[in-house]
Design goal:
With 431 residues, the chain is of the alpha/beta class. 26% of the residues lie in helices and 26% in strands. It has two domains: 278 residues, Zn peptidases (Aminopeptidase, 3-Layer(aba) Sandwich); 130 residues, Aminopeptidase i, Domain 2 (Roll). The structure holds zinc ion (ZN). Keywords: Aminopeptidase, Hydrolase, Metal-binding, Metalloprotease, Protease, Zinc.
Length: 431
Amino acid sequence: MRDHTFAKELISFIDSSPSPFHVVHNLKNTLKDNGFIDLDPKSRWELKKNGRYFTVVNDSALIAFVIGEENVEEQGFKMIAAHTDSPGFKIKPFPDMRVKDYIKLNTESYGGPILYTWLDRPLSIAGRVLLRSQNPLNPTKKLIDFKEPIVIIPSLSIHMNRTVNEGVKFNKQKDTLPLLGRLSEEFGEKNRIFRLIAQNIDVKIEEILDFDLFLYTVEKGLITGMNKEFISSPKLDDLAMVHAGLEALIHAKPSSGINVLVCYDNEEIGSATKQGADSPMLSHVLERILLSLGKGREDYFRALSNSYMISADMAHALHPNYEEKQDPTHHPLINGGPVIKINADQKYATDADTSAVYQEICRKAGVPVQKFVNRSDELGGSTIGPISATQLGIRCIDVGNPMLSMHSVRELGGTLDHEYIIKSFEAFYCL
Ligand SMILES: [Zn+2]
């Protein structure tokens, strides 16, 4: 029997990454442990051949890269892109709501979660807190993770909604607000969330300026299926691809060009933020790498022309209860290998050229490949590929591992697929 090392590592990576800020924090630690140097975007960069570096954008996005031996203008950038965010709920600035002696929290949804999957689960809260400092332009930032289950969104009893099993329409301002507890002396009448934060990170309430806090399920990921073939875990979309990209970048032998891993934030809300794919964040970093190596703009554009990006975001597998939802001739299965995502309207960046390249990479790595196309009468999603490709004007493919329950609080992927895609990414970086 396989030992599923990669799947287990993925599960523990996800379990310790309850918010995009924690994802980046964990990426930083692993990169540092593997000899990568943290570059301050505000300082002048002095990069060297064979160097390993990373830089962080707004605490929730990260670009890591390894500089090869040969001239980048001829060998180009080999890039893998993924995203750090997942759909869920964000806590509003003044969230306290009192109903009799109950306290509930006012939240808004982030991205497109499957709402009913969040009900009746022990949930916790994680994110970042901004604290007063000497310099108003640079508040102190702290990560926060309550770890313990402290909130829950209770469903309405079937006795009060007899038609519940015929389908429920959820109102995000009414049906999905989490219960925090009952009024108590300790947490007083007002600012309970501020009190909880202050207690958790050991600061005074007056020091707290603001926060970005998200709900998350405390139920850990696990391996399941009669042959241990499935991974059941929160946030597989897209932390599975972040983890796979990280593994490949760290372990790939130095390549001829520059290997890059970009982990964007905000894919789930359209990528149009300064740390999202629809921003100059990646192009700025790539150009700075060239400038620091003593190259010019002409070299930068030559490098882009020689570059290739794998946009890695999870893909839909055929659902055994809804076979009719898949295209009649393309139906990826879990553990059938990475999925190339194709769309005639270019909601995915893939074209025959970039697909041909990735298929050859997989063939050489001994990895099977599948293809996904939407049914012609169904609108599909999009991802970071077309946005990055448009920003940079580079060759790009959209791929991802096949999964079920996308955007549920708990998603289902394949143990074998995780190994496959890491192998394909390593083979790509070694080209
Ligand atoms: Zn995604």
